Amino acid sequence: MTVGGVVIDPPFVLAPMAGLTDSPMRRVCRRAGASLVWTEMVSAEGIVRGGAKTARLLAFHEDERPIAFQLFGARPDSMGAAAAVLSRMRPDLIDINAGCPAKKVVRSGSGAALMRDLSLLAEIARAVVEASGLPVAAKIRSGWDDSSVNAAEAARVLADAGISAVAVHPRTRAQGFLGRADWRVIRAVRSSVAIPVIGSGDVRSPEDANRMLDETGCDAVMIGRAAVGNPWVFSEAVALWRGERAPAPPSLADRIRLAASHLDLMVEDKGERTGVLEMRKHLVAYLRGFPGVSALRAELVRIDESAAVRARLKRALRELGPEENA
């Protein structure tokens, strides 16, 4: 898949997730095989006002490329002005969020609220395309609710406005993240536009990711929550896609070692205190699903110093048997 000259290969990308897809997680997932990563969603108004917190969300390393900055807002002038600012930070893509269902975002007329006003969505898309000088993508939902499923129409509007790719989460805003994602909506969008289409929703395994490609005809698949604590999902999905033997699932020792490396990236990027605190949710995820580790997980989330976390992880490795620690 090529988006405005940016090659996305293989067809598995990391979804943007608030509070999760920071620079350390993006780097970990790129190394595991994700071919494109997204930043967390940032506010156009925050960018225009020069908010320091917003700017921090956009800091990235060269080994994260290709990278997309995701932008949300409801005013074409602010979205265009913000896109011009973002372009100077040299991402590979800019992405318009027209899918976030959060009440705070929707109340401002942003995110999934744009699915109720396709003329405004088109204005925003044109403003961002004209101001950015970069390829622009957009992420949409099925529609506002079951009575207004309009993803295919929205995709056509976006393509006509100059958007280079569209990502589709096939749930309505009313559904939020509940219920089942209707992959038929992705197929309908794929049939409606000539630009690349990225599928999203209910991708919980490498098998799901490849099944979405087969069933919907989409050009790439977004993997989100399934990658938290399990970036190996990308390498496993790639192996299946290539018809290769799937790699052995990561052992507990593999997970402990990668958790330690991830911690180092967190502290490097965010500093000691913030890095350790924000790493806790990842530590819990890395160790999920293994028998006998609940006490270790509980202990790790109470430690406040990175050196002590590393020491505890090293001790956990020593406590494993020779076969488990190979």
Question: What's this model, at a glance?
Answer:
With 326 residues, the chain is of the alpha/beta class. The protein contains 14 helices and eleven strands. The chain has two domains: 240 residues, Alpha-Beta Barrel (TIM Barrel), CATH 3.20.20; 68 residues, Non-ribosomal Peptide Synthetase Peptidyl Carrier Protein, Chain A, CATH 1.10.1200.
Describe it for me?
The chain has 326 residues and is α/β, with parallel strands linked by helices. It has two domains: 2-241, Aldolase class I (TIM Barrel); 252-319, Non-ribosomal Peptide Synthetase Peptidyl Carrier Protein, Chain A, CATH 1.10.1200. Helix content is 46%, strand content 14%. The strands form two sheets. Strands 3, 4, 5, 6, 7, 8, 9, 10 and 11 form a nine-stranded parallel β-sheet that branches. A two-stranded antiparallel sheet has the order 1-2. β1 (2-3) and β2 (6-7) form a beta hairpin. α1 runs antiparallel to α11 and α6 runs parallel beside α7 (151-160). The longest helix has 19 residues, at 252-270. It is globular. It starts with a strand and ends in a 7-residue tail after the last helix. The mean pLDDT is 94.
**Fourth CATH level, the homologous superfamily of the largest domain:** Aldolase class I
Order of helices and strands: EEEHEEHHEHEHHEHEHEHEHHHHH
Distance between the termini: 38 Å
Please mark out the parts with pLDDT under 50 across 5 or more consecutive residues, or reply none.
none
Q: Beta fraction of the residues?
A: 5-15%
Overall morphology: globular
Roughly what percent helix?
Answer: 40-55%
From the 3D coordinates, which CATH architecture of the largest domain would you assign?
Answer: Alpha-Beta Barrel
Using only CA atoms, what is the Rg? 20 Å
Output the CATH topology of the largest domain: TIM Barrel
Major sheet attributes: 9 strands, parallel
According to CATH, what is the class of the largest domain?
Alpha Beta
The tally of strands reads 11
The average pLDDT score comes to 94
Count of individual domains? 2
* Number of H- or I-type helical stretches: 14
Helices and strands: which structural class? Answer: alpha/beta
